[in-house]
Amino acid sequence: MKIKLKIWRQKDAQTKGKLVDYDLDQVDQHMSFLEMMDTLNEQLILKGDMPVEFDHDCREGICGTCGVMINGQAHGPVPGVTACQLHMREFEDGATIYVEPFRAKAFAVKRDLKVDRSSFDRIIQAGGFISANTGQPVEANSLLITHEDAESAFDSAACIGCGACVASCKNSSAALFTSAKIAHLAKMPQGEKEAAKRVLSMVAKMDEEGFGHCSNTEACEAKCPQGISVLNIARMNWEYTKASVLRD
Predict the structure, then answer these.
(1) Domain of residue 189, residue span
(2) Is 105 found in the same domain as 125?
(3) Residue 152: how many CA atoms within 13 Å on its side-chain side?
């Protein structure tokens, strides 16, 4: 396959970036998108040019670090996959592909396609914990959790924190990410003790980090590689309202 790439190159957050053209003539259709990027970087290094920086780790669609905008879509055109699981057979021979970093005030560009998503870590740190007694573990059957509650909590916990929800939202809202982290603990008895404090702290930190507000367009759910439901946002709003009433 022959591919024409238009890749965003930017030295750092303070430097103005631009799209740069690259041509690849021997792309295997079975390559993953990141393997194609590796091929480009090998050629750039051999020519003495700076390789394109991008985040990646597991390359198995688990860690959530590989997020980029591909032709204007977070993780590319295929629903339910991360960029590392996207394959070049999804593109036509001779296609022009635009590759850009996630865009959000809270996601500062570090270099090229690499963005700073530590704001997500700070949201979790603001309230993502539970209290647990030390010593002898309690008997498992003493905590009565229905199968439906356990499955629902697991669905919320499946969020990998890639940031596609933020990049896809016209307001750069982190409501889907934050609500998933709040909801998966709120649905379990272990998370009840700090539930009110957690939701107030995490929502406050989300606003402090500069994310926008949710306006219910549901673009976040549409581009989430894990299919996290916007019903988590409704649960977060309910938990927040309840916590605010109890606080007052």
Answers:
(1) 117-133+142-247
(2) no
(3) 15
